[in-house]
Amino acid sequence: MNNWLLRRWREKLAGSCCVLIAVLTGLFARGAAADGNSPHVDYMLHCQGCHLPGGVGYPGLVPNMQGHIGVFLRSEAGRAYLIQGPGAAQSDLEDAELAEVLNWMLSEFDPGNVKSDFKRFTGPEVTAYRATHLDDVGATRRALLAEQN
Question: Which of 7, 60, 72, 123 has the smallest set of CB atoms within 10 Å of its CB?
Answer without folding.
Answer: 60
